[in-house]
Amino acid sequence: MSGVVCGERSAMSELDVKTESSPEPSPAPAPSGPEFAVATQPSYAHTLFLGSEGLRAGWGFAFYVAMSYLLRRLAVQLASSRDLGAGGLWSAMLEEFGALVAAVIPAVVLARIERRPWRVYGLPARQTFGRLFWVGAVWGFAGISVLMFALYGLHGFTFGNVVLHGARMARFAAFWAVMFLLVGLFEEFLLRGYTQFTLARGIGFWPAAVVLSCAFGLFHLQNGGEQWTGLLAAAFIGFFFCLTLRRTGNLWFAVGFHAAWDWGETYFYSVPDSGMVAPGHLLSSSLRGPQWLSGGSVGPEGSVLCFVVIAMVWIAFDRMYPARVLAEHGTSALPATADSLRQAQGRPSSLRSSE
Hints:
Layout: H1 2-21, H2 37-40, H3 44-49, E1 50-51, E2 54-55, H4 57-80, H5 89-114, H6 131-153, E3 157-158, H7 166-192, H8 194-203, H9 205-219, H10 228-248, H11 252-268, E4 286-287, H12 291-294, H13 304-320, H14 325-328, H15 339-344
Antiparallel strand pairs: 1-2, 3-4
Helix pairs in contact: 4-5, 4-8, 5-7, 6-11, 6-13, 7-8, 7-11, 8-9, 9-10, 10-13
């Protein structure tokens, strides 16, 4: 009897111990609500307009083109509404200045939105009218001079006589120098500044260069007397300017080349420039012979020799400015690659630039 009682007490003691030492079962977790994408992902608008590098290239490019076009139309209207005398020449210069401002303002706005330094768009302020600009000017005047003397040697061009003298010669030389400086700044920045940098972010440098060089050729359709040979020559020259941008890291060489080429063509050699004949030129020169040689109403840029000269200039530039020259000029990065922002901000690059 006592043994049975002791056995029962022992069994009960063991049961008590097990009961006290065993933890109580935890309550079942409450059912959670569904994880909607809107609560865990960026908004649709954020994804549509912004990417890993800020504003998407397509939107930036579209905004820039639209705003610069509207501002340029406004500049043209303001310039044409005022007659500043000199046969409309001062109004034409005012219009060109307004076009430059129209090209720059949207880029300034977008630079702040995208938080990019201004220099990556091709016109670093610290190199304004520096060595690259003047070297480019020498190349530009030399290039148009080679073309004109080749036409002269093949009897497609005659110099005529000097028709400006004294103060008028100096005044018109200075006027056209300033005018074509504005033209060079406007056209180079419009088509190889913000647009080249941004479009290259989306499709790469050289595809963007092809697209914008073709646009540069079509841009000349607004000139009276222009023909398809001149459009092709302009596109070819524009593609060369893209090479200078790629190799030097900015647009100052191209601006100097562009301005000096136009000045030499319009004022110094006094021939049509992309179909336009300007007043106040130095010589009573003329083009003659077959159109394929002289360029006809287009001017020397419509001549087959223009393609030969630009090819020669391309080869010479490629030899004198190899790809490594970019670092020698102290530029922050290639202005038309996605790495330019990373390098400008001191962050490591994820891509390697190559020609």
